[in-house]
Design brief:
Elements (H helix, E strand, L loop, with lengths): L5 E6 L3 H11 L5 E7 L2 H11 L3 E4 L8 H10 L5 E6 L4 H9 L4 E4 L4 H12 L7 H10 L14 H11 L4 H8 L3 H15 L4 H10 L5
């Protein structure tokens, strides 16, 4: 059971929010809260020290905010998946966080069971994007970015890319294509390199924009 526990770090400047999240998450059999941080800088330090699987990150915090923390984690190439937990519904707030490397977002009034499901989902490799936010990301992207590079993808890589766009994790892609997870990881790395993209979110958006989605 221990190797299936999802290690979670809470990053929010409001103690009452962290306490509420911890209280709920600690009753989940497969989720363990390994630490807390009160701002983005503390969150980056704690992520490096504690090595959580998933970070629940607020956006608006004094000092180092969530978006800057995301950028620092990307620079450090930290493998933790970051799920934004925010009270802000504006696309102008959420979109920069997703572009900085977040795997998705939920609102602070989210149903507790839905929050646990979101944590499990991003941990499994999914990208949580609501349609209107995906559309905003596409609108902000340069339509020419990556154009023409799709021709360098092999047929198998295009299949993998289509499944990434469907929100499938590496394990699910491996099962669907009857491949090993190691082989899928290699295909994903090759796709990102060939398309000059930095993460799965950008790959999924590229697939939608260029008609490669399933």
């Amino acid at each position: 059971m221990a190797d299936r526990i999802i290690r979670v770090l809470l990053v929010d400047d409001h103690q009452v929010v962290r306490r509420g999240l911890r209280t709920f998450l600690e009753i989940q059999d497969d989720i363990e809260v390994v630490g807390e941080a009160a701002d983005g800088a503390e969150g980056v330090t704690a992520t490096e020290k504690l090595r959580p699987d998933v970070v629940l990150m607020d956006i608006k915090m004094p000092g180092t905010d969530g978006i800057e923390a995301l950028r620092r984690l990307r620079e450090l190439e930290n493998p933790a998946r970051v799920l934004i937990v925010t009270s802000f519904t504006e696309q102008r707030t959420v979109v920069p966080a997703l572009r900085a490397g977040a795997s998705g977002y939920v609102y602070k009034d989210v149903d507790p069971d839905a929050l646990a499901g979101a944590i499990r989902s991003v941990h499994a490799g999914h990208v949580l994007l609501q349609p209107e936010v995906a559309g905003a990301l596409l609108a902000q992207d340069d339509p020419g970015t990556g154009t023409g590079r799709g021709s360098t993808l092999t047929e198998r890589e295009r299949e993998v890319l289509g499944l990434i766009a469907d929100g499938r994790s590496n394990r699910e892609i491996a099962r669907a294509l009857v491949l090993s997870e190691k082989t899928v990881k290699t295909h994903v790395s090759n796709i990102l390199m060939k398309l000059d993209l930095s993460d799965r979110t950008q790959a999924a958006l590229w697939a939608v924009r260029n008609g490669a989605a399933g």
